[in-house]
Design goal:
The chain is of the alpha/beta class. It has 4 domains: 132 residues, Rossmann fold (3-Layer(aba) Sandwich), CATH 3.40.50.2300; 107 residues, no CATH class; 58 residues, no CATH class; 215 residues, Rossmann fold, CATH 3.40.50. 39% of the residues lie in helices and 23% in strands. The chain is built from 18 helices and 27 strands. The protein has a 7-stranded mixed β-sheet, sandwiched between helices. The protein has a 5-stranded parallel β-sheet with strand order 2-1-3-6-7, sandwiched between helices. A 5-stranded antiparallel β-sheet has the order 8-12-9-10-11, with helices on one face. Helix 4 links the parallel strand 6 and strand 7. Helix 7 packs across helix 8, helix 10 crosses helix 11 and helix 13 runs antiparallel to helix 18.
């Protein structure tokens, strides 16, 4: 029979020091805890076999050892009390004792003198977590693919389970309540009842956790799993068909042939407005706070009715556009060959830094001078490439041209080489507007090529780069060179995403093909081949050059300049 004290949280205090035991007992009993005391590891282990304890508080000094001995005995035991939480209280003012205690399985550690309020708060947190684990046992926890989700529901029905099934897929959350194998409640972020079941079944995968527990009260829902899943199958299949039309979640849209009716509902108007402004399919799904399945269906319906249509990729008709563009710039035939000669005959064994060179005014007339544009999502990287190309020309000539700027993170200069060949070099800020670009690409600007630096290849950065590339392509149809920056010649790293949880991962490009695991969701990750992955992330056509260089290495930048100039001349023949 339970006594009144059996319902109160029990704490065991162990210490060789009698004053410590008594002081801790008085402090904890004032907080409403039942407190037991022991002096040794041996007597503690004997007590734990007979009595349920929610927390052990151990001083360092025990009659037959220390709290290290207690932790060793507890954690190597395979009995039911082996996971009992242990709060160690030591004398060490450094970190060695604390670190060792955690390594041996302590749940918390404090050093003397003890801060009473902090200790009690930590002890309460540990006890509450232990009680949740004890009284809400997780009887099922796994990650499964879409086709396996119904099997879990059927299992809970067959076993007549009562409790709570918690499901998640990336940022989506859902909970289904079972009572004797029947579904009595179902909810996700934006839907409930059978619609919530349909939503969970439509996820590509799910993290499933079932907590067996008593379920009390009355519920409006009372479904058998078999009949509920049968009703959901048709909707899930229809949704899969719609989703299959968009294998690339980064697709964007433009205004369709039919305007959106004025009497459309608020959500349809918002989706249409955002889509027409350049938001990708995935951005729409993550920005508008309604059920994702319903939203995807709405987007597809807008496309079916002609209110939206898929936008072309930024580099559609790339070669055709190039040919027409360069046909209008015969001036390149005159200016580019001497620039190639200058950069290829330069001595790179003793390249001087810009700071050591004298500034010359340079020509103010750049109307017939070819221009190189540097753009990208990262102002610092843009500046690195700008400075390196500036350095190449300055070392060829023996002095440097002045740099001018019209706005933040923008700069331009006239590069003058030893043989008096000249080029305009301009870097653009990471954020640009149509008015600014119109001036950059004016009719007499003679832009020969754009070097575009993509600082990373994770989902968000790639999305930013695709939008900026599209802006540039609206004004300029000539050559682009996409640069994946190699910032360290010894360790070549690239930032990508885990395809399941979207955690950003830094991977070694030289280890392409190697397999590892995401530190967040433990999904197996194969390190991709750098340039192939870059082309896929940025939606590049095979004709668009993608190169891997160090933007501060003069020789690598020289090779890029030479390659781009020769390619332009070959394309103009």
């Amino acid at each position: 029979m339970k006594t009144n004290n059996d319902s109160i949280d029990r704490i065991l205090v162990i210490a060789a020091d009698n004053d410590f035991r008594n002081g801790m007992r008085q402090m904890l009993e004032k907080e409403g805890y039942t407190v037991l005391t022991r002096q040794s590891v041996e007597r503690t282990m004997q007590l734990l076999e007979l009595s349920e304890i929610y927390l052990v508080v151990s001083d360092y000094e025990l009659e037959d050892g220390s709290f290290f001995n207690l932790l060793e005995n507890l954690r190597k035991s395979d009995t039911f009390y082996s996971e009992t939480p242990v709060y160690c209280i030591g004398n060490d003012t450094g970190n060695d004792e604390c670190i060792k205690a955690f390594e041996m399985g302590a749940d918390d550690y404090s050093s003397k003198p003890l801060n009473k309020k902090v200790f009690l708060a930590r002890a309460k947190r540990i006890i509450e977590a232990w009680k949740r684990l004890k009284y809400n046992p997780v009887t099922l926890e796994l990650r499964i693919d879409q086709g396996e989700i119904p099997g879990v529901f059927h299992f809970l029905e067959a076993e007549a389970k009562t409790g709570y099934l918690k499901a998640s897929c990336r940022k989506d959350q859902g909970e289904v309540t079972f009572k004797m194998g029947r579904i009595v409640k179902a909810e996700t972020d934006y839907c409930a009842a059978q619609d919530a079941l349909t939503e969970i079944l439509s996820w590509p995968f799910a993290h499933i956790k079932f907590i067996e527990d008593a379920v009390e009260g009355d519920f409006d829902l009372d479904l058998t799993v078999s009949s509920a899943l049968m009703d959901c199958v048709l909707e899930v299949d229809q949704f899969k068909e719609r989703l299959a039309k968009y294998p690339d979640m980064e697709v964007s849209f433009v205004q369709g042939s039919n305007p959106l009716p004025k009497n459309s509902n608020r959500v349809a108007k918002k989706v249409h407005r955002m889509a027409c402004s350049g938001s990708t399919f995935d951005e729409l799904i993550n920005s508008i706070k309604i059920n994702k399945r319903h939203l995807i269906t709405l987007i597809d319906q807008l496309a079916e009715m002609g209110h939206l249509q898929k936008a072309e990729l930024p580099f559609a008709h790339y070669l055709e556009g190039q040919k027409k563009y360069y046909a209008q710039l015969p001036i390149l035939h005159k200016n580019i060959p001497p620039a190639i000669t200058a950069i290829e005959t330069m001595n790179y064994t003793d390249v001087k830094e810009l700071e050591t060179l004298t500034i010359i005014p340079g020509s103010n007339d750049s109307s017939d001078t070819p221009k190189i544009i540097i753009a990208g999502d990262n102002a610092e990287l843009n500046n690195s490439l700008f400075s390196t190309i500036h350095k190449i020309a300055a070392n060829s000539r023996g002095n440097k041209s002045a740099v001018k700027s019209s706005r933040s993170n923008e700069a331009h200069t006239i590069l003058e080489f030893a043989n008096y060949a000249s080029l305009v070099l301009q870097k653009l800020p990471p954020k640009v507007d149509p008015h600014f670009l119109k001036g950059v690409f004016s009719q007499d600007s003679n832009v020969s090529c754009i070097f575009y630096i993509a600082s990373a290849l994770d989902r968000d950065t790639s999305r930013t780069n695709r939008k900026l590339l599209k802006q540039l392509r609206d004004f300029y149809k000539g050559s682009f060179y996409i640069i994946i920056p190699k910032l360290n010649n010894d360790e070549s790293e690239m930032m990508i995403d885990c395809q399941f949880c979207y955690h950003k991962l830094s991977v070694d490009i030289d280890l392409s093909g190697s397999i590892g695991n995401c530190p967040i969701c433990n999904t197996e990750i194969t390190i991709p081949e750098c340039l192939e992955y870059s082309a896929d992330s940025l939606k590049l056509l095979p004709e668009v050059p993608c190169v891997f260089i160090n933007p501060v290495d003069p020789k690598e930048c020289r090779d890029l300049l030479s390659l781009s100039f020769k390619s332009i001349l070959e394309g103009m023949v």
